[in-house]
């Protein structure tokens, strides 16, 4: 197991979540800007959290099909390092947002079967990073953060021209196997380190990062 797998903990809402992520030595912390999510934060909350983050922890803002006005308003208040797009943003929209905001963009792509892999190639041409996530079920309320894994064998040995992160249903108990099987060098988790929807658990965060680092 490589010691340098980088971990993103997504859906941070409280000061103690930042403390837990920093103590565990995660590389990325994610803030969800999506009103229907139990992890949603408003700009004022996110600003306070983002300003408390020490250098070395990248602050990722997660958006779902955001319009320009919403992104402008959040970015005017919240210092973010990376934009994560978790909706149905087209490749053209990804390019436009990169140019407009001058921030690296990570595009989430949902995977359920072989037919979803072409999208990774397409977005790999325009995004700075890919988030290879489980495709949400048809009736899901959220486009991500559902705690569901996909069949990791679908991407075993696959590579894209930009860095990528594995996500979807990862937990402290399965992340080592997921890394070994897929060769991922970056992993992302939300539900798997929560004690209840939207409530992060410091002990689970520490266990997850420890397991990912091997
Ligand atoms: O977390 C949310 O509530 C959320 C809402 C809308 C879009 C995406 C969302 N989360 C994405 C993630 O947290 C992760 O990047 C990824 O989907 C893995 O989540 P999980 O399976 O819960 O670990």
UniProtKB/TrEMBL annotation:
Any one biological process term the GO annotation gives: L-tryptophan biosynthetic process
Keyword Transcription regulation: no
Pathway(s) it belongs to: Amino-acid biosynthesis; L-tryptophan biosynthesis; L-tryptophan from chorismate: step 3/5
Enzyme class: isomerase
GO MF term list: phosphoribosylanthranilate isomerase activity
Keyword line: Amino-acid biosynthesis, Aromatic amino acid biosynthesis, Isomerase, Tryptophan biosynthesis
InterPro entries for this protein: Aldolase_TIM (IPR013785), PRAI_dom (IPR001240), RibuloseP-bd_barrel (IPR011060), TrpF_fam (IPR044643)
Domain N-(5'phosphoribosyl) anthranilate isomerase (PRAI): 7-209
Organism superkingdom: Bacteria
Enzyme Commission (EC) number: 5.3.1.24
Catalysed reactions, as listed in the record: N-(5-phospho-beta-D-ribosyl)anthranilate = 1-(2-carboxyphenylamino)-1-deoxy-D-ribulose 5-phosphate
Record Pfam families: PRAI (PF00697)
This protein's record includes keyword rRNA-binding: no
HAMAP family linked to this entry: PRAI (MF_00135)
Xref: PANTHER family: N-(5'-PHOSPHORIBOSYL)ANTHRANILATE ISOMERASE
Family from the record: Belongs to the TrpF family.
Protein name: N-(5'-phosphoribosyl)anthranilate isomerase
Organism of provenance: Pararhodobacter marinus
């Amino acid at each position: 197991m490589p010691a340098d797998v980088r971990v993103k903990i997504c859906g941070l809402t409280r000061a103690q979540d930042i403390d837990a992520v920093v103590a565990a030595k995660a590389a990325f912390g994610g803030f969800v800007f999506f009103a229907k999510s139990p992890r949603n934060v408003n700009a004022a909350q996110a600003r306070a959290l983002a300003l408390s983050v020490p250098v070395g922890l990248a602050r990722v803002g997660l958006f779902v099909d955001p319009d320009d006005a919403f992104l402008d308003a959040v970015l005017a208040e919240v210092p973010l390092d990376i934009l994560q797009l978790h909706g149905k943003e087209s490749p053209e929209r990804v390019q436009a947002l990169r140019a407009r905001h001058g921030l690296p963009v990570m595009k989430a792509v949902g995977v359920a079967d072989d037919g979803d892999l072409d999208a990774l190639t397409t977005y790999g041409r325009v995004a700075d990073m890919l988030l290879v996530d489980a495709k949400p079920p048809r009736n899901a309320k959220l486009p991500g953060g559902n705690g569901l894994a996909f069949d990791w064998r679908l991407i075993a040995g696959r590579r894209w021209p930009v860095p990528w992160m594995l996500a979807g249903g990862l937990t402290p108990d399965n992340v080592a196997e997921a890394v070994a099987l897929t060769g991922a060098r970056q992993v992302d988790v939300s539900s798997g380190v929560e004690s209840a929807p939207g409530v992060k658990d410091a002990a689970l965060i520490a266990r997850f990062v420890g397991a990912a680092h091997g």
